[in-house]
Write a structure and sequence with these properties.
AB_hydrolase_fold, six-stranded parallel β-sheet, AB_hydrolase_1, about 240 residues, 10 helices, Rossmann fold, globular, AB_hydrolase_sf, 6 strands, Hydrolase, alpha/beta, hydrolase
C-alpha cells in the first residue's frame, strides 16, 4: 500500500488532516508528532524516522516547510510533493523580521498567561475565512486542537519558525511531481507567495481553494481531499 506522509503545521495534530485520512481510506496515511522539536531540521528527522523507504509527502503551513526540509535531507525517498498554505523564505532581516518575532512572542505570552485556548481565539481571526468565524463546529475543532498543545511546545515551534531555513535554493532542484495548494483568502501564507513558488519549481502545478483562508484542510476538506486523490493518481 502506498504511504502518504501528512505533515501538520504550527500547533496542529492529526485532526488537521482527519477528513483527508477518511477520504483516502485506501492509502497508508501517517501523521508525525514533532514533540518538543525546536527546529525545522529536527522536525524533518522525526518525520523520517517512521516513514517508509519511499513515500508521497504533503505538508500544511509549517508542515510545508518541514516537507521541503525532508526533500533536502532525503530527496530520494519522496515520490511526490504537495505544499499547502506555506512558505519557503527565511525570516526577513531588519524591522520586518523583528515585527514577526514580536508578534509571535506576544501570542506566546498570552498562551502562558491566559491559556492556549484563549490565545487560539485571538490567533484564529487571521487563520480562517472571515465567513467561517461564526461556524462553531469548525472553530471548536481548531481551538480544541490548539488546546491539546502546551505553551512549551508552542515556544519550541516558534523558535523553529523564527530560525527557519531558506528553501529558495531547493525549489528549482525539486525533481518529483510537485503541487502547490492555497486558500484564495489565506492571509498568513498568501496566494502571491505560492505563485512565486510555482515559478521556481519546475513543472509544478498550482491549485487555489476558493472561499478558504489558511486552514484549507479543515475549511474546505472535500476540495483538498479531491486534490490529494488527483495528485496521488497523476502520472
Amino acid at each position: 500500500m502506498q504511504q502518504l506522509l501528512l505533515l501538520p503545521g504550527l500547533l496542529c495534530d492529526r485532526a488537521v488532516w482527519q477528513d483527508q485520512i477518511k477520504a483516502l481510506h485506501d492509502i497508508d496515511c501517517r501523521v508525525p508528532d514533532y514533540g518538543s522539536a525546536a527546529s525545522i531540521e529536527d522536525m524533518a528527522q522525526i518525520a523520517l524516522q517512521d516513514a517508509a523507504p519511499r513515500f508521497a509527502l504533503a505538508g500544511h503551513s509549517m508542515g510545508g516547510r518541514v516537507a521541503l526540509e525532508i526533500c533536502r535531507q532525503a530527496p530520494e525517498r519522496v515520490t511526490r510533493l504537495m505544499l499547502l498554505d506555506t512558505g519557503f523564505q527565511p525570516r526577513a532581516q531588519g524591522e520586518a523580521g523583528a515585527r514577526e518575532e514580536q508578534g509571535r512572542l506576544a501570542l506566546l505570552r498570552q498562551a502562558r498567561e491566559h491559556g492556549m485556548r484563549e490565545m487560539g481565539s485571538t490567533w484564529l481571526n487571521g487563520m480562517v475565512h472571515p465567513s467561517r468565524l461564526e461556524d462553531s463546529e469548525l472553530v471548536g475543532q481548531i481551538l480544541a486542537m490548539i488546546e491539546r498543545k502546551t505553551p512549551t511546545i508552542f515556544a519550541a515551534q516558534i523558535e523553529a519558525l523564527l530560525s527557519r531555513p531558506d528553501a529558495s535554493p531547493l525549489l528549482p532542484r525539486l525533481a518529483c511531481p510537485t503541487w502547490l495548494v492555497c486558500g484564495r483568502e489565506d492571509s498568513w501564507s498568501p496566494l502571491q507567495r505560492h505563485e512565486e513558488m510555482a515559478r521556481l519549481v519546475p513543472g509544478s502545478r498550482l491549485e487555489v481553494i476558493e472561499d478558504s483562508g489558511h486552514m484549507t484542510t479543515m475549511e474546505r476538506p472535500e476540495a483538498v481531499s479531491a486534490l490529494l486523490r488527483q495528485w496521488l493518481e497523476a502520472a
